[in-house]
Design a protein that fits this description.
Largest sheet of chain A: 3 strands, mixed
Bound molecules: zinc ion
Number of domains of chain A: 1
CATH class of chain A: Mainly Alpha
Order of helices and strands of chain A: HHHEEEEHE
Strand order of the largest sheet of chain A: 4-3-5
Shape of chain A: globular
Distance between the termini of chain A: 38 Å
CATH topology of chain A: Arc Repressor Mutant, subunit A
Radius of gyration of chain A: 16 Å
Strand content of chain A: 15-25%
Oligomer: homodimer
Number of helices of chain A: 4
Structural class of chain A: alpha+beta
Largest interface: A-B, 33 and 33 residues
Number of strands of chain A: 5
DNA sequence: GCAATTGATGTAATAACATTACATGACGAC
DNA sequence: GTCGTCATGTAATGTTATTACATCAATTGC
């Protein structure tokens, strides 16, 4: 997915997420952007949908929240299976990718003739500092 | 986690999930159990919390829904990392466990000194029939 | 130029999911 | 019988997400 020119709303949401320490809920983003003219949840959700499509934002299913992608590479190609550790103590989220996991999941789904569209891997626990 | 004697409400919720074709939301369960005296969401959520604690029910984070555990073994021990394929077409959910994945995730989290408490793996896509 | 199309936006209302707070009831330990 | 604990009942509220409909801007085809 080549990264297209972002629209005004998409840029605002992306900036909010990029400058945030941790994940943010859609409604938290909305509140941050009221000064910039945001009035309704849909403005946030629409921007988030696009940003996820472009691979610039990830949704954390177990938190109902969103984070900016921290992959080193740009987003000109699909970056495969994304996994996260999420600290219950400090809220820190770490994104990582692992070829071995991806291969193994591929083998397993293939065995049941399942066609994967999106894989969610989220590990809740405590980081080194909060252990 | 040894499976204790279930309470009345826990039994009702467990039965509803066991007899369901696929995952159910808490509110769907509530509706199914109105005839049995259920009146409020909390009755469902409280039962679900316990059933999850006992390992008899799993929450699907990406669906905000719940399924009965389909593990062949009983629930007298923790059954480690649980993963699911979820068909977008027919709603079919398949639970599986894989030692290799578990090992690999353990290695990766250990590398960042992360203490895992709960791991979520959910694969959305299409099953053989719905491909 | 000017319809027609497409994609983005604005706004309101509503739906769907989950929790807090507080009161009551059942039951065994002592 | 009093206490502590756990399950339950009920209402209210909080949080997350979508539907529906109107408007606006840029592009395309004529
Ligand atoms: Zn990423
Ligand atoms: Zn931490
Ligand atoms: Zn299970
Ligand atoms: Zn299917």
């Amino acid at each position: 997915m080549a990264t297209p020119q972002l629209t005004k709303n998409q840029t605002l949401v992306m900036d909010a997420l990029s400058h945030s320490e941790g994940p943010m809920s859609a409604y938290t983003i909305l509140d941050k952007l009221r000064d910039h003219g945001f009035r309704a949840p849909l403005q946030v959700y629409r921007a988030l949908d696009k940003l996820q499509e472009y691979g610039m934002v990830h949704r954390l299913e177990s938190l109902n929240a969103f984070v900016a992608c921290t992959c080193p590479h740009d987003h000109e190609h699909d970056h495969g299976v994304t996994a996260f550790t999420i600290c219950e103590g400090c809220g820190q989220v770490t994104e990582f990718h692992d070829e071995a996991i991806e291969q193994r999941l591929s083998t397993l789904t293939r065995a049941q003739n399942f066609k994967t569209e999106k894989t969610t891997i989220e590990i809740r626990g405590h980081c080194q500092s909060c252990a």
